[in-house]
Each structure stands twice: as structure tokens, then as C-alpha cells.
Write a structure and sequence with these properties.
4 helices; single chain; about 70% helix
Length: about 80
């Protein structure tokens, strides 16, 4: 929760944070969240697990894990 005078600054920081990540990950997250609306918990968990498995096969995942192992910031494709 932020004060009214901080909304734009915090929003801008949040946008910068999200845009620094892998676009594929953000797209997949958005898709899964939209698909889960109104679903049972078991379906949500299955969808989340499937999305996680899919996300681990992307170039972004390889770069993220490599960057972590090399102790550097990732350079997403």
C-alpha cells in the first residue's frame, strides 16, 4: 500500500521490474492466470504445474539459470 503521492512512482518502478524480465514468462503467467479464473483448485494446480514445466523449456529459462549459476544479471532474449 502506498500513499496517493507515490502511486505513479511505484507504478513506474513495477513496470520497470516487469519489463526487465523475460517476455515469455510474463506472457505465460498472464495466460495461465486468465485461464484459472473460476476453476477448481485442483485444475488451477494442474495448470500451474503444466505452465511451470513449459516455462523450464524456454531460452529464457536457460539464460536465467545460467545467469544465476554465473552470479550475474540475466540477459533475456
Amino acid at each position: 500500500v502506498v500513499g496517493v503521492d507515490q502511486i505513479w512512482a511505484r507504478s513506474s518502478n513495477w513496470i520497470d521490474y516487469l519489463s526487465a524480465g523475460a517476455a515469455e514468462s510474463l506472457q505465460l503467467t498472464k495466460r495461465v492466470l486468465n485461464e484459472m479464473i473460476g476453476e477448481q483448485l485442483s485444475t488451477q494446480l494442474s495448470s500451474g504445474a503444466a505452465a511451470m514445466a513449459t516455462s523450464l523449456t524456454t531460452e529464457a529459462a536457460v539464460e536465467g539459470l545460467t545467469a544465476f549459476a554465473e552470479k550475474r544479471q540475466p540477459r533475456f532474449p
